[in-house]
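Q: How would the structure tokens look for this protein?
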Amino acid sequence: MAVLTLLMCACGPPGSSEVESERKSIGDYLAGDAAAEPEGDSPADLVPAGYFYDPDNPEQAYRQSELVAQEVIAQCMAEEGFDYIPYAPAMDHADKNEPGSFEDADEEYGLGVSYSVLSQEYYDESPHEEELGEAEEYYDELARRDPNYAIREALSPEELTAYDEALYGVIPDIDYDTMTDEELEAMTDPGLLIGPEVGGCYNEVYSELWNDGTRQAFYTQFGDQVAEIHEQAEADARIAELEANWSRCMSDAGYDFDSEDDAYLYIVRRLDKVGAVAEMDPSSPWDFLPEPVEPGSDTYRAVESILEEEVAIAEADIACLGDEDEVRAAVYGEYEQAFVDDNRAALERFRDENN
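A: Here is the predicted structure in token form.
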């Protein structure tokens, strides 16, 4: 959250911009064309974003949500008398100005498993100064890309304080030792930066975005049905053929994996053997706890060696995926459209009641 706060932090001197009498809400933006075309026939007109298959996720979904939130934050800040430029940073690396391709990421991070172990020193209680300095430079460069950075730099200390309070609210003094269980539970609301007392445009808007009642209501009413059609899609012969082709291709490249999960689990087990995994679940390749390793140690060098192998596996994985996105999109699209056709009346009522 601290990093996200740094990336999103932007402010400027008080302005006299005219403010719309009615600020749009997150819901207004997410409704999009569906509200303007209540008789729309496409699934996107009837089903909230995020429930149907999207090969561009997670980046596309992330950027869409960020842009929506940023537009509303800008309106909120204008109401407070401040200028703010909506900005949603791309999910890229520090040395790129545009989002990197899957191939670019694989060349550096592999499947991301070994890299997560090598990155643990940043979270150690006593981080090494060299690595910590590199991390600070990384996030400082990201912050400078924000178009609001120059505006913020020009503020006086008093103006900066006023901006931060308008954008992020005021963090109250909290005595955790004297709080009741109910009070502590109230502070775990995932849509709030610190708690309901903080306020601020950032906290207000992201609370609405992350706690969108429409999405939860859709899940309650249709979640089981959507899960069922996705299970049917995964059982489709075309998907099974994709997986069989992938496995044969990986075998030709020298890797005996039935699925991508097998590749992840293989790397986790390699890391476990060299002492770089504290806990792991053999049934779930991503359910493991990395063991922090000392840079320059034998374990660290062993993990670096595993990362080299992981990069090769990731490159083969990309080559073997072929047209998987297109096939999956077509298969899921058929099942999802059938769901919409079979439930059109109920979906239209839901849309009209929740817009």
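The chain has a mean pLDDT of 75.

The two ends are 30 Å apart (CA to CA).

Upvote if useful.
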